[in-house]
Fold each of these.
Amino acid sequence: MTNSPDTSTHEVTFVVDHRLTDDEIDAFFDHADDATPIRESGRTLIQFDREAATLATAIVSALHTLEAAGLRASAVRSDDLVTPRQIAARTGRSYESVRTLAAGTRGPGGFPAPLQSEGWSLYSWAQVGPWFARHYPSADTDRELLNTEHDRIIAAADHLVRARAIMAGDNLAADLAALVAA
């Protein structure tokens, strides 16, 4: 696909709500020639290389293509949820350094709160990556900062697609849609 000056190719991967059969995959390609099915751990992923002006536009367009084929996405594949050990690996720091920064016993403070802390802590990389880039700039985190907008959009799209799947057919879904605009 050749990009026009106003567009570029954006990659987005959806988790389909069930493992697709070979017939469903074949039928899907009547709707999309820029997608690749991936079977992984008992589920099917559909990866799009969608030409669009923005990543958000590409996600919406690809989702419409998926749904036009009679398929339903349950999520957008995202590497947003990270443990302190994964944060350490991504930033080139030790686990102990990340743990003390997160606990506020070291560093400038203001470390993003965990999204979950029962059992083990899970953080949003879309929040943690920019924090490191602001407070501890380095070649590693500077490269990550370049992906901040991408990471934020993918993480947000994942939450929104999951919400659509959870609320499908529920008459309260329209009321909750106001949260996005609030």
Amino acid sequence: MMKRILVLAAVAVVVALVPREASAQHTIVSWGTMYGVDEGFVKHTDIRGVRGDELPWTLTSATGSLTIDGHLSISVRGLVFTNDPEVPPELRGINDETSFRALVSCLTDEGHKRVSTVNIITSGFPATRSGDSDINTTVGLPGSCVAPIIFVLSGSEDKWFAVTGAETGSGAARTRR
């Protein structure tokens, strides 16, 4: 009887571990931070054809992942206008959008030594005035998705508020030789 219980327990442990390992192997990218549009990215600079908003944004936190089957999960908190002079006083510290969308940008091999950018935009997901939103959807990825970049977009126009990346602080990202 004791052998039977031990065998069943061992099988349960193996079954419990397999999905976690399998899903981890199929993650293209996961992140624990994003960068709010500001400074040189405000309205002037495109990233892969996507323009930043015309006003600066900040965020408290963001996490997410993208898997090879196109499952996209983003949890963003506190994505709001900054408290900067260029932001009208009535917008500072709030989100004025009712929804956020996500954009997945991939580089893909077209063959014949040609690479192109493919941008896939999701539908909108509810966003609070305090800038909280959970995006959980599946996107149709191209045959190859190289160097993916994930954006959080406005719900009403194709401008980004946050993008995968981080503000590392002064001198924190020096190149080492």
